[in-house]
Amino acid sequence: MRGWTKVLSVVVLGIAVMPVPNPAAGSGTEAFEKLKSLVGNWETDKTNMNKATLDLELTSGGTAVLEKFHMVENGKPVEMTTLYYLDGDQIKLTHYCMAGNQPTMRGSYAPETKTITFDLVSISNLKNPGDGHMHHAVYTFIDNDHFKTTWTFQKEQKDAFTEDVTYVRRK
């Protein structure tokens, strides 16, 4: 009978350490639905750099949102790609940056403020810990034709700059 006691103890202990979902936070599924609502073509006249466009499309059988950022700076095209997807019930993004690295961030949706806040969880192709990379992003949903992004770039483990951009849906 002692063997069953050990098995029961292990099962109870396993249940006791299971993560408890945070009911205050919106689900990854809700966040993904918000991102899907952005599918289409967007532009802005105000960035810290130049006019930019953003194209979002649903891809991979509806399991991912592909974002393509386009801008011209000093006569040269600047392009970056970000992929949004669900990993279980967590919203994640992988940003393919001009800096040559690919940060992956996990998001948290706050329905009351209509924001998804993403924070870095891993990064590929970061040669040195102090190299520059996108570290944090916030998406704020204003209405069907407007949304705002705030991206934070880190270098030497400190925030180097923040880029706030409000996009308007192209009709």
Please describe the structure with a list of short key phrases separated by commas or semicolons.
171 residues, mainly beta, Lipocalin, 2 helices, 10 strands, 14% helix
**Shape estimate:** globular
Average pLDDT figure: 87
C-alpha Rg, in Å?
A: 20 Å
CATH architectural name: Beta Barrel
Q: Which regions contain 5 or more consecutive residues with pLDDT less than 50?
A: 7-24
Largest sheet, in brief, is: 10 strands, antiparallel, barrel
How many domains, as an integer? 1
Q: What is the percentage of strand-forming residues?
A: over 45%
Helix content class: 10-25%
Quickly count the helices: 2
Structural class: mainly beta
Query: How would you name the CATH homologous superfamily?
Result: Calycin beta-barrel core domain
CATH topology: Lipocalin
General description of the model:
This protein is mainly β and 171 residues long. The chain has one domain (24-169): Lipocalin (Beta Barrel), CATH 2.40.128. The chain is 14% helix and 55% strand. β7 (115-124) and β8 form a beta hairpin. It is globular, with a radius of gyration of 20 Å. The N and C termini lie far apart (72 Å).
Summary, kept brief:
The chain has a single domain (24-169), classed as Lipocalin (Beta Barrel), CATH 2.40.128.20. 14% of the residues lie in helices and 55% in strands. It has helices at 2-16, 28-36; strands at 40-44, 52-59, 64-73, 76-87, 90-96, 102-110, 115-124, 133-143, 146-155, 158-169.
